[in-house]
## 1
Amino acid sequence: MTLAEYKYADTIHRCFRCGYCKFPVNWMDVNNCPAYARFRMETYSCGGRLWLTKAWLSNEIDWSEHLAQILYSCTACKNCEEKCPLRFNVDIFNMIQAARAEMVERGLVPAAVKEFLENVQRHGNPYGNAREGRGEWSQETGIEQYQGQDYLYYVGCVGSYDTRAQQTARTLGKVLLRSGVSFGVLGSEENCDGNEVNALGEETLFEMLAEENVRKFKDLGVTNIVTLSPHSYNAFKNDYAKYDGSFPVLHYTQLLRDLITDGKLDVSGGMNARVTYHDPCFLGRWNGEYDAPRQVLSAIPGIELVEMEKNRESTLCCGGGGGNFYTDFLGGSENSPARIRVREAATTGASVLAVACPNCMTMLEDAVKAEGLEDKLVVKDVSEIVGEVCGIG
Amino acid sequence: MFELKFDANICLSCGNCDCLTRCQYMDIDRETAKTEITKIASGEDSFVLHDCVTCYACEEYCPMGNHPFYLIVERQEELDIPPLPKPLIERGIQTGIPFRGEPEIFEAKEPALCMGVFSDLMYLIQGKLFDEFSVISEDPRKMFHYFCQLMYLHYARTSVIKERLPGIIETIAKHGAREIVFFHDECYGTYDSYCSAVGIEVPFKPVHLFEYLYNKLNELRDEIQPLNMKVAYQRPCSSRLSPDKHHFVRDIFDLIGAQSVDREYVDETALCCGGTIQGQRREGSRLRSADVQERNIEDMVNAGTEVCVFNCPACYNTMAGMVSRRGIRPVYMSDLCRLAIGEEPAGWR
Amino acid sequence: MSSVYESLVEIVGGEHVSTQAEELYIYSFDLGTTEPHRPDYAVAPRTTEEIQEILRLANREKVPVAPLGGGLSLAGLALPLKGGISLDLKRMDTILEVNEKSRYVVVECGVSQGQLTSYLERHHPTLMHSEPGAPPMATIAGNMAIHGQGDLAHPYGFNSDMVNGLEVVLPTGEVCRFGSCSVSTQWYTNHPLPDVGLFLGWAGTTGIITRVSMKLFPHKSIVGAGQFVVKDENLIPEIIHKITHTEMVHDLVAYSQAIPPFSSGLHHLTINLSADSEKELAFKMELIFDDTLGHYIRSGDGGYLGFNRGLQRPQVSKTSDWRKGGGFEYVGSIMPVETYPDCYRRGREISEKHGIPYTVLGRVIGMSHAMMFSWTYAFNRADPETMDQAREALHETDDLVLELDGAIWKPGTYGQKLVMERMDPNTLNLMKKVKQLLDPNGIMNPGNWEVS
């Protein structure tokens, strides 16, 4: 593909590199682009990536592993799109995604990305774990296989396989059972939702996954979906319609909020804790849902909800989006976004850092350990906090 | 060229001269009013032409529908008595020039709604009340192609209105809708009142937003949760061109359980937002405007107003900050209606 | 691997130095019309000590060093014109001290304007600094190094007039401190010690500013902008004179531009006011808009457009998208206020000749002691022809500034040459001696302010 054939050929040169994309809303630092925060070289800023993309497509620079890593270090957090004052801002991530697609097309992706994509293709998950084991997390929980219940509880790859995130998946399942929600899971029949595959630019594989999932959901008569992960939520809500799959979908925090409001979930037991909440990018900036998780937490007596200085549209991404929870291009430094983020959380004086995404959970929990904050700060998913309140371990 | 349908004989035989005697910004007795309106009608200078704040209200006060306000601004232009300093007039006239390409003409399905020059306010027409609409002028870059031009009454430049309006009407008409709800009642007033007053043909039927909202809310009656708020309506100047639609304000309030406060400056005695007055050429205009605003807001406060409801974006821009500093929440009527049916309007947040 | 590279890695760590094509590509560009210049190394130090070591190394190996802050001068001033090290200073971003009582802040050189604005808003809401119209990534120290101005230029002058002290690393690696910080722990004044003033306005050719103490000013609780419009450009100098006489205004800017059409051929004055009470605001508004400007309103020559509370944060980067093209550059100049009409008329001619919609702006500096007048030319980065047009227009404008007896502000190399051709030869000679004394090997930002 030449620059002229690139979908955003008329747009990509419009980035001025003025740098608004590095800031949160209140301008308190220039660290709100996770990749730039990690490396602090202009190449890793949003503008740097766009200029490099244009340079590569117009043969001003050659492809290199380093170039690919720069492009794949973007976590798809959309901070840039929120902050860029120019009209083309809605397409910033699309421009990166399209460039990645070209790298995929030419077989020029970094090794870790290649591995991620191959694992998803072969095993339906990025870890390369066996498909058969996908449902093991739900053993002995009483959670049923989906067979026409009101909701399909879609767990996603991280919740299905990551040991820590599996706990969250189980707790949420039990909370839903306690609330009398009619739901089931797909277990080993569940496949990757493809959200990260799409972000990584593997369009064909994403199409395949989306079509398969849509077919499966239809065959099973799925009417409503509730997801553990905002990433799955995003794919189902915004991308599956193209594949004839318009299923009403909720992120679980939205469902919990409704259950509490409707009196079906009793959180009156309360919890005495100072809690700060970290917005997941695919729930917040991608889908505008900032309130539901906060409403859930605020409904619990005894919880003092304190905000980090960078919250809602200004949240600093955990650094795990766009496959980075696996590819880890931003890891290995005290400037890794997750470590910056847990330091920010610690300054609120909160003892609990609440998350609503299994990717954020794994990224931030690792960061708490790396920062030696285990004694001060515990990462808990919103569903786990609710579970604790309800006496569900 | 289009000519104002004004009959001087009607004024000569008028007993009350409400147009001038009821003016809230000039103190004119009946006798003086008669003399001055006669002078104006015959093309002579009058202090009225110098002191008029261009609030449009006389257009409503005249019981004969003889268009005294349109006459005043035509005479101001003819006699070169501009109500505003010339740079403001030039700026205003240039503001309406489209400069970002031609509009995309698409077949508008009915019901259709035209945003006019308020394409930036698309967030005000979301939710159930509006989701059926085919929206004309939703792109801010093209909105001046849909600008009703009537703002130039404040500038005493009816010549500009008459020159540009036929082209605007043609553009809107190309969308093919027979009935069009107008987001702003100045547009409605243009196509309903002004065009007929000067003989410009309008090939579509304008519908007042509040009439539409009232009817739509009736359809959704089951979903209405009474708001139980004390509201004051900031009546815009353009509303004087459609006094027959003004009752929909109260009708809507009644329907959604908003309690209209008992206040002095209401309906026919409503006060101008001051946005135009502050820039006028006449000595002391800025302070005059500030005084009008102060009286208006003080009246709202004294009446226990919780929410000030707006129709016109210009009034909103001028007064929203002022009322909120006095503890009154500013909100557009469309957002208030959305709130009543359980939606969470963007403007309310 | 070269020994320079290895030494740099040793100084700043491997992650903060690069010789890879991607970094060298990105750091070769300015955001304006200047042709790219490729560095040999991109380096991002974190401490003054690291900078000292880098400069010692560069001086020893005779490697050029181009210091880079926000990279928003647009005039190519931070480009490695002769290769060498592009020294990205933005990692040095700690706000070290705010002294509320003595109203100053000490920052590291990479602290951005936005970061300081935010910090003061959140922690010291009664204080503010003079924030330039640049995007918030612009750095405090970079702005000082080019004699920038901000939104308090009218009452308090150039930002470089607000310096209370500097820490500078000389090209030979020594650290020098100037102002009270050189004799005490406090950074509250730049005086009364002998003035060596060798670093402000030199665009990084004499050393690297690593720390700055800058004056802060009262930030009142109510801020807002009034707008006043006139048609006749000849009225602007006298109106500015009258408004500045009141000593009531925070920022005073006149502008005119072809697009959007409302402003074409008209001159808007943006008059920023601030107050701590409604009473104070009402008093100031009456003094300005009624007593001072009322005469123009009554005569019909000037119009009051209203007063809006709150100030819009700088959105100047939108200018870059006027031609849907990611770029603009402007000639800034420091001019006598009375040249406004000529600046406008002649600038408009240049724009129209090159087919670029005109945009001009004058910001008052001091009590009408001068104005920063700018002519802006947008271009489309994807269309070389528009870049050429803009470049030509910029050069013609540089010529115009000198013709009108002005001084070019932060000139690029073309403008620097024009200025030096005109400059008093003795001054020029002194500049040359100073440069030779401080930077014997000519490593600091070479290509800029080079006296032949």
## 2
Amino acid sequence: MPVPHTAFAPEATTNRALRAFLHGLPGVDEVGARARAQDLSTRSVKTTAKAQAIDLAISMVDLTTLEGADTPGKVRALCAKAAHPDPTDRTVPRVGAVCVYSDMVATAVDALRGTGVGVASVATAFPSGRAPMEAKLADTRRAVADGAGEIDMVIDRGAFLSGDYLKVFEEITAVKEACGTAHLKVILETGELVTYDNVRRASHLAIRAGGDFVKTSTGKVSPAATLPVTLVMLEAVRDHHAATGRHVGVKPAGGIRTTKDAIRNLVLVNEVAGPDWLTPDLFRIGASSLLNDLLMQRTRLSTGTYPSPDYYTLD
Amino acid sequence: MIFEYAPAPESRSVVTLRETYELFVDGAFTPAEGGEYLTTLNPADETKLAQVAVAGPADVDRAVAAARRAHETVWSRMPAAERGKYLFRIARIIQERSRELAVLESMDNGKPIKETRDVDLPLVAAHFFYYAGWADKLAHAGLGPDPRPLGVAAQVIPWNFPLLMLAWKIAPALATGNTVVLKPAETTPLTALAFAEICQEADLPPGVVNILTGAGETGRALVEHPGTDKVAFTGSTDVGRQIARSVAGTDKRLTLELGGKGANIVYDDAAIDQAVEGIVSGIFFNQGHVCCAGSRLLVQESIAEELMPLLKARISRLRLGDPLDKNTDIGAINSAAQLERIRELTDTGEAEGAERWSPACDLPQSGYWFAPTVLTGVSQAHRVAREEIFGPVLSVLTFRTPEEAVAKANNTPYGLSAGVWTEKGSRMLWTAERLRAGVIWSNTFNKLDPTSPFGGYKESGYGREGGRHGLEAYLG
């Protein structure tokens, strides 16, 4: 008689079961993971492939502003940019979403109505995640009530590093419930998890708890989205799909500033997780300055000359 | 969505091919006395690249005499620091011309530009830099207070890493004060001839390096020539045996770097994604034309079911095609003869009961190509588990316990390389201690470095190349 795989059943979720599952995952060899990411970053993506990659990357950008100094005016300007990244060229696709703090969601929803651009909100006491659970849930509910279609939550890294995987798991499931129909992206803050073994474990924990996306970083901690970290996360969603048939997305965020960085990420998606993931539904890039570089490279590719940065709007 | 990489060919314009190449003897390019030429092809499309002189016995005499003269009158008398300067100069010129040499190597050999650019050429330059540094420090090599050069070295190299094997042979020989007569492989002579030009450019004294092109007969004449003091050979075990016989009874020193059937042992606690990478680079690096290839995968039976789909998915993503395309992972097989051998052995594996698998893969119409292939259900008794295929063909065997892994890994007439994949340090050391192989890679594969000695046990040859140990082969 087959033994039921109780570790997968939510009702049987205990810290001991989670620990056994996560610590039973194959390790990640740091040198090997770096070498693979480096090897893939030598792919040469030119001409038609580059044009395709640039438009795909634009459509995957979560155009982000997460500053203490954010104002409704700043958010509205960002939304205009998100809907029409290049006002002079309507063939440029719109970005995937605009990503703001929860108190700016209403402003963003209003500004983006009818554009097809999504609104994502960071929540759960972003970026540190150090707040009472009630506050994290209230933060989430407010953003969802104001119309956010995507919630970017942070995990409790302290709990994860202390081995309290159940706490991390339960927070994610609770936030997921508070999200209702909104998509949940789970930020692992890999710069604080440090090892690739931790990245793999945290990815599987977030996926298992119901996250729709796993996201590398808040952008407030360095290092943020490095290629090996994204590689390890892509392996996790690939393996989860192979085991369960469910697709979970990946979002590197922080430090992706150039077209070259973005294309390297797309190559990683293509060759590690596979072409299924080459859609804004399953891969996003959290960035702000990246968009203008993509636009400049797009113009360069179609006209043969680099335009001055002054031709691109700041936000 | 399909993300198809557009063609990204490296330009051939950096390479200027001559129609005809002569022998490089005593500092100058001179025709062979027999007037015979052979043609070297681009294995990717079977186009003719150039014709190359075939050296006969009279040419070997000339070259050995020039090398002897250079050794006695110039090279062995020169202050060691001066010898080092020449080697540093050669290393720098190689770096300056590395793009040209990488393209030329890919054209003549069929290996992808990604490898010649990122592996072969950096290692070639590194080898010359490394041994250049040794030239004036030989008294500190642990080989006595005043080790002396042997004299003239006859060196015969294979076609799989043409310029790198040249570097492995020439750099330590020159650093230790020997002069050389080198024969590159019949199918890949062009980078050795480009190296001859580099020797001229570096003002290397005439006769210190002599390059004789030709086929097996030229090689035989060279290794059997009574005027040399040392024979160094890298190639097949069969030819190595013949050379050992011909050198027996002479006072020549001999080093042989021969075949292999490397075991790549994957334990159940291995970092599985990196192990998959290591298996792939172990056997598909350079189309498997690697003597230290991990051609036998020994995977612990308890994870075979989990590992094989990951491995096959990874192999399916390998890009086979134009060696000069920067995104090509698998290039062409070097020659029609080698392709035939790979086909024959792989068919034998299937006939003996192994299950054969290759990814869906379009092979170009012209040229010599073989799809990456995995043979599963292989047992120790199969020819494909015992004989070197020297192509992109992986034989997969399973084991149950560490003892069985080691016993199977060592159950081969060869002993050149092995790889071990485990996250457990004690098991890594336990295994490495028991493997009879010259190179053992821990959680990696096919990593080469000039500071590290390389060579085999058993029928994989004797002597070491590289590192401090590599000096010993050229000092008396």
## 3
Amino acid sequence: MTASPYPESVLVSPDWVVDRLDRFESDDPGYRLLEVDVNTAFYDAGHVPGAVKIDWETDLRSEERHDIVGPDELEQLLGACGITDETTVVVYGDDSNWFAAHMYWQLTYYGHPDVRVMDGGRGYWVDHEYPLSTASVSPPTVQYGKPLSPPADPSIRASREDVLDAIGTETVFVDVRLPEEYRGEITAPPGMNETAMRGGHLPGAKNVFWADNVRPDMRFKPPSALRDVYRSHGVEPSDDIIVYCRIGERSSLTWFALSELLGYESVRNYDGSWTEWGNMIGTPIETGE
Amino acid sequence: MYDFSFTITYDVGADEYTDQFIDRESLRSEALYACLDPSKMWVLELVTGDPEDLAAVDELLLDESLDRYSVSGRSCKATRQVNQITDRSRQRMTYTYVSDVSYCDAIPLIAVKYFSDGVLFRRTRSGETAQWHVLVQDDENVGMLYDTVSGRLADGLQFSFDHLTELEQWESRLLSPSGIRAEQREVLTAAVNRGYFETPREITLDELATELGLPRSTVSYRLRRATAELAKAFVDQEL
């Protein structure tokens, strides 16, 4: 595999991980690997040796507040995964790292100093026959070590008020959902309850499908190709950008690509996304192309 | 059983096999896929069309190096064996066995990861579209499959969702229930084998009745019922 064109401080290759499996499997909290899948059953079928399972539904969301997990809960979760504020955390998952990117975004928002995504996620790892394990993984619980409140980087998160304020301004909305969701024909995937009362998109939003960030083998496109994806939709590095999807996870992947890989200056993830916007009273919505 | 149905639309030039269907309007394909785990898949595909159009795809149908199954921008890393099991002027049927899969972004091989009990698939193809029916016992993971499949498509392929319904009816050439009862089938088979439908007839109805040891009126009735069912089923399928 050729060297990654992206900094290892944000994106590491599967080879980088496989070379350090002994450290990830060690009780020492220096390195920790987390698998975060949309389909939580995948982990049990086999995971990267030493990877701790994160369940996005219970670990990354606060059921009570209907929000992303709070700072105290996150400290607890990280401590239980054997992670201190000095741990190098590598996240990966299915669907080209949807929820891995989402967890990266949450950790960055709250201020964990060293978190990285494994390129290609679970799919690339499995397809290319890297080692898998079904052994249970439970590193010794540790104290996280520093408070995560207030969030260290609130500038990467957009609220509904931020979105409302940005409508009609130069801020660029990037809707990363499928065209049929963007147009308003579908409000939730079949059989799922992530629904909205109304379909459509934010006024003026550009539709750049999340999968356009990745190659057929699920690794991120190289920088020039990735930049071209956004440039072809009229999204420039200096734009103020708000990304969103249905529940804020696919848009985390796009946020990661724009902010962390390409270094665009101002990118926020609207994690309330369509399940919030499409259910509010009287919000401005556009439908169609 | 649930039927999760979606359509993939191909741009010209996006897929060599589909291009033939775009160029040749008479071509239709219907396939049944079965998949029990992500390492192998079986495909029974019936392609119909005008004789000259079918002749044009013959080579592609049997080409084991052609990846007719991947919907992503990468080819399958797997072993393919293709056998032709029907070769008539207006139809070809092939049986394909895909095995030793390292990776293969065929719809069934993507889907089976979400339905560990195995899944059945029906796919119809004409022109620029391939419509898929994913048949599953439980619809729990359909939403995840929707998100995953739509995210895997190569450039030039578009995804659109059709429906997710509990399956109540089934219309398929490959598995069509003919509506012919067993006793009718017995008479029909004897009639065909003994040349009753040849011109001129090689056997009369009286002779057939004698051979079968049945009254003439019974043989006549069963034959009429059987041919009526076949004719109706044929017209229904054509519409």
## 4
Amino acid sequence: MVKSPLLMADTEFQGKHPGEAFQFSFRQHWIRLLWPFTKLIVWHLLIISIAYVTFTMIEIPDSFTRRATLVLLTVFYLLANFEFLARFYRHFLYVIVITDKKIHRIKKSLIILDDHQSIDLWALQDINKYQHGLIQNLLGFGSIELEAQDTLLRIHFTPVIANIYEKLMHLREQARTQMSYRGTAQQKA
Amino acid sequence: MDSTLLTALASFALLILAIEGVMWHIFHRKIIGMCLPEESGPGMRSLFTRIRFKAFAIIHTILLIVVIVITYFFLW
């Protein structure tokens, strides 16, 4: 069974064909946010250290210089925070939606990116799963590679990868069965 | 209270509100149709639903302003 963090969420999504039935959706593993978060912490520590040295140890006598330094540090503090916030929002603007017929990859950023790539489940030749290293195996995430005739779709940082892989294999077989059933019915007609 | 301090605080508060507002507006417009669970829907147990995202944006904005206000009162 596929469990959290897959969301049985809003079953209507952009680019959905009327005949498609929503199965599940997922976002990248939370570890993707670890580096931006670490960077934010490092920036905070750096700004606090500079402020401590400037205002406690050096004690600038000129009030204009002291205030200018404070404003400059505030600007860096805000830049670090907004950079993290943009990265955080972008994490949620990347979603993989699986229906009974297709796999949709919807990838957006706040301003410059708006991608939608979809691939037919029945047309998939290979579904490969990669989990390299200790962290990927411990936390259960990795990459899934979907290979059709002319298309290769790589989904990195896939959470609960073993379950998703299993579910995809099952849905592909279902889609192929449906396709062959339709083909036979058309031939008979 | 020093008028320069008030000007600096008001300017930063407005800047933060504007940037947070614009970022939230763009995010909210783009997240529609991207399988984000509703508060009352089947995905409500997820950490981030639509309402929780909004709450996060508001708390983040308040936090930034409060940190700047406290720091400026001590160091200005």
